[in-house]
């Protein structure tokens, strides 16, 4: 299974939704809270090609985007194969 990293903030409903989808799929992920570790925000922005909103989700080294992007991948049947790669 691919390593999943998700950049989040507290009180972010999109972050909660994204983590819930991953939890329901049994995915173990590394959560990086940029509100608790603001020094890591520039790293997130660089990795996410300039995107500044949370969540930003990565499967391995591939940036899949935010919550809506992940949900669209899931609806298209492309998320599970990506997670299994």
Automatic annotation (TrEMBL):
The answer, when asked if Cell inner membrane is one of the entry's keywords, is no
Segments forming domain Glutaredoxin: 4-64
Keywords attached to this entry: Cytoplasm, Disulfide bond, Electron transport, Redox-active center, Transport
Q: Which InterPro entries match?
A: GLR_AS, Glutaredoxin, Glutaredoxin_subgr, GRX_bact, Thioredoxin-like_sf
* UniProt KW Transport keyword: yes
Please report which protein family the annotation says this sequence is part of. Answer: Belongs to the glutaredoxin family.
NCBIfam families assigned to the protein according to its UniProt record, in alphabetical order: GRX_bact
Q: Which function does this protein serve? A: Has a glutathione-disulfide oxidoreductase activity in the presence of NADPH and glutathione reductase. Reduces low molecular weight disulfides and proteins.
Q: What is this protein called?
A: Glutaredoxin
- Taxonomic source organism: Rheinheimera maricola
């Amino acid at each position: 299974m691919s390593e999943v990293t998700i950049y989040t903030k507290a009180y972010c409903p999109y972050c909660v939704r994204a983590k819930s989808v991953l939890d329901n799929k049994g995915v173990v992920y590394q959560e990086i809270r940029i509100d608790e570790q603001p020094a890591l925000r520039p790293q997130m922005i660089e990795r996410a090609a300039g995107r500044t909103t949370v969540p930003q989700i990565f499967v391995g080294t591939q940036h899949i985007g935010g919550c809506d992007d992940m949900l669209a991948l899931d609806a298209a049947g492309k998320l599970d194969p990506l997670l299994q790669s």
